[in-house]
Amino acid sequence: MNKFIKIHPADNVVVAVETLSAGEQLEDSGKNITVLNDIPSGHKIALRDFAPGDNIIKYGLPIGHASKVIRQGDLVNEKNIKTGLEGILEYSYNPAPVPVLYPEKQLTFKGYRRKNGDVGIRNEIWIVPTVGCVNGIINRLAASLREETASAGVDAIVAYPHNYGCSQSGDDHENTRKILRDMVLHPNAGGVLVVGLGCENNQPDAFRELLGDYDTDRIKFLVAQQVKDEHEEGMKLLREIYSAVSKDRRTDVPLGELRAGLKCGGSDGFSGITANPLLGVFSDFLVSQGGTTVLTEAPEMFGAETLLMERCQNREIFEKTVCLINDFKQYFMSNNQPVYENPSPGNKAGGISTLEEKSLGCTQKSGSSAIKDVLMYGEMLKTKGLNLLSAPGNDLVASTALAASGCHIVLFTTGRGTPFGTFVPTVKISTNSLLFNNKPGWIDFNAGALLEGENMKDLNERFIRFVVETASGKQVNNEKNNYRETAIFKTGITL
Predict the structure, then answer these.
(1) Domain-terminating residue out of 249, 279, 297
(2) Helical (H) or strand (E) element with 180
(3) What is the pLDDT of residues 361-381, one digit of tens each?
(4) Fewer CB atoms inside 10 A, N or C side of the chain?
């Protein structure tokens, strides 16, 4: 295994594959380089001397500039590199050709065909509250139904508490309603019991209208203030739902009906080298099969947004992408916060020094396909292919938004590790083998094999098989551990 990786020929830094000690010798393009500091795995090493203001190049593009003198062989990190990004920018539409990379393979997975024609990859019963005041009720109901049925005939019985539904106004109120609507209508749920209190802002009757046309045999409502014994009445409704859902069976479904969310968190210096490029290759493959992928984390597109804009399929989608980027910058500025307050402490410890560096790695999850649509927060998918979604970088908020958009599964890359899951299967893909081996209860798939000699083609073939198995019912770690949560984006006041 090589001691370092040079990602692009134009790069003037390389990434240490293993921890290097001061005094070690490296060779790049016939030039000998003496390592001047101890370099942690995943961190950058200067290939030349830098004066303050000189651009530091990684992925073939600037990731910032030197904030002080950096010597050849030095460790390059947040202490000697500074972002070059600015505030709201003007953009021009310069479309680039998008390649067609994969032929149709006619693969299938085993899914659940719903009454409305949609497909789910799980057949679960969910209990969703309109307001956080009834969280205790829904948790008790879920536990009782699990005890009564042992979950036989269904994939899971899950309550999804949250803190909202009242004391909210404006966009916050609508965001809560939209995310809860999207959950209730999600095809991974064979049936849903919606539990309200009765006096909340998110009134159950108004929320019922927001659902539109829905399957009344599978989606039922309980308003706790309107019944004498909410637990008894809730169990009656859940037994009706369970009777219907437990009869559902998996059937063959074309892979082109799969919808996958693309997310990263706890990133490190290998994220843009292993796991994120793997998701990019997989995204291109799934899109070529007629499937759908969704890239989110708008703040982690800053610095790489023009690469995405070049792939917009037309000017309308380009303009929507410009709004996605600049509206999110304006959100920071309106709250008197720096636009580029990123990366996180964990990112820095893993080898990421600036937002440009993080973004150039992050956006690799989208591959090279054309961008077909841009979704606002809480909006549901309507266009197949690669989509962008407006949501923050926060792991649970963004993953919830991906699931709410209609994604059946979230593919989540990480170099530091995280155990959480949202309300759809949340697959953890490690950027390095050390994490994979140390956290077998968190990590589902290891992209670190790329650092050890496996080629991308073979790794992607293995990953395709893994995703098909997962879509067909194989549980991932967050499901095995019952790590299932939701988080709703909040921007305004609490009444």
Answers:
(1) 249
(2) helix 170-184
(3) 999 999 999 999 999 999 999
(4) N
